[in-house]
Amino acid sequence: MPKLVFYTATTLDGYLADPDDSLAWLFVQEQDEAGPLNYEEFIRDIGAMVMGSTTYEWVLAHSSEVVEETGSAWPYDMPAWVMTSRTLRPVPGKDIRFASGDVRSLHEEMVGAAGGKDVWVVGGGDLAGQFADAGLLDEVITYTAPVTLGAGRPLLPRRLDLALVETARNGAFVASRYRVVGPGRW
Amino acid sequence: MPKLVFYTATTLDGYLADPDDSLAWLFVQEQDEAGPLNYEEFIRDIGAMVMGSTTYEWVLAHSSEVVEETGSAWPYDMPAWVMTSRTLRPVPGKDIRFASGDVRSLHEEMVGAAGGKDVWVVGGGDLAGQFADAGLLDEVITYTAPVTLGAGRPLLPRRLDLALVETARNGAFVASRYRVVGPGRW
């Protein structure tokens, strides 16, 4: 059964980005690209992805290196959904689908398109939370940077009970994989 | 040189307690009391402790088991400082000192009283932040529970650059020790 996985970096105090959506605190950290829970192995099992509009615009705004390498502002070849209530510009030649509304029907569509592989929730935290609310979020994988921000974009603004599956150091990060158990009943 | 160490449990999204100051999410988690970064080994090296008024009142309100075992509502024998601007009730026969104002002079006093051992910042997050602001916080040790709350009392509401010293699984938790590098310069 394909899984829906929220794979993300976060600060120790649970922020995905600072209040200005900056990830400067993240890019200075060392990581072992062949180490535990590394991106390369993760993405090999991913067949579709979904993100919110802020994440989408962030990728496009920060993709100058990607443009140089591939000639496109979009680094992914798999089908990607962008949840948005706004009109956003597409990327020529890329399979980017804009969607809104309930995440349940979207989930079915994504799993269908993923061809048996898993689906990646790129962010932000509220979108991952919407999938969790619907009981559709299977795993959370966090790369915790040795940083506190005190304010910013929340990791996963929900009361959720998880279960630690594996954890290990990866460079400057603590990389951990969790199974989503369900809503917190404390 | 004695260290000032913030040793605390936290949720994956960086909360010390929920908005009602509940730790119910924490007490259901399994831990290995002889495992990595366990409390017993930690407290052996501690000679003094400091906490905010909310933490102090929480300990007193939740100490019925302690009262049964020891006859006192206060489980600690070492000198303890409580940072508060309010008048709080003391615990008979215990070395509890109420303080307010700048944390620098307090730090000197605590280190003096600790007799060469380390000093524990019990919480909350803002008190740990005040010591960090003054450049006096040496380490942060977190027990990260497999839980998100989405709201609550913040772990460490500051922009801080840390360095991961060690990390390991302890029961349901990820236990990690960080050295405080300084203010985040990103």
CATH class of chain A: Alpha Beta
Chains forming the largest contact:
A-B, 42 and 42 residues
Q: Class by helix and strand content of chain A?
A: alpha/beta
Q: CATH topology of chain A, anyone?
A: Dihydrofolate Reductase, subunit A
Low-confidence stretches of chain A: none
Order of helices and strands of chain A: EEHHEHHEEHEHEEEEE
Task: Tell me how many strands of chain A there are.
Answer: 11
Helix content of chain A: 10-25%
How many independent structural domains of chain A? 1
* Largest pleated sheet of chain A: 8 strands, mixed
How many DSSP H or I helices of chain A? 6
Portion in beta strands of chain A: 25-35%
Q: What's the overall average pLDDT of chain A, rounded? A: 95
Please tell me the CATH architecture of chain A by its name. 3-Layer(aba) Sandwich
Note down, in words, how this protein is organized.
- The structure is a homodimer of 186-residue chains.
- By secondary structure, chain A is α/β, with parallel strands linked by helices.
- Chain A has a single domain, classed as Dihydrofolate Reductase, subunit A.
- Helix content of chain A is 25%, strand content 35%.
- The first copy, chain A, contains six helices and eleven strands.
- Chain A has an eight-stranded mixed β-sheet with strand order 5-4-3-6-1-7-11-10. Chain A has a two-stranded antiparallel sheet with strand order 2-9.
- In chain A, strand 10 (160-170) and strand 11 form a beta hairpin.
- The model of chain A has no long low-confidence stretch (mean pLDDT 95).
- The A-B interface holds A 10-15, 18, 22, 24-25, 28, 129, 140, 142, 144, 146-151, 154-164, 167-169, 172-174, 176, 178, 184, 186 and B 10-15, 18, 22, 24-25, 28, 129, 140, 142, 144, 146-151, 154-164, 167-169, 172-174, 176, 178, 184, 186.
- Strand 10 (160-170) of chain A pairs antiparallel with strand 8 of chain B.
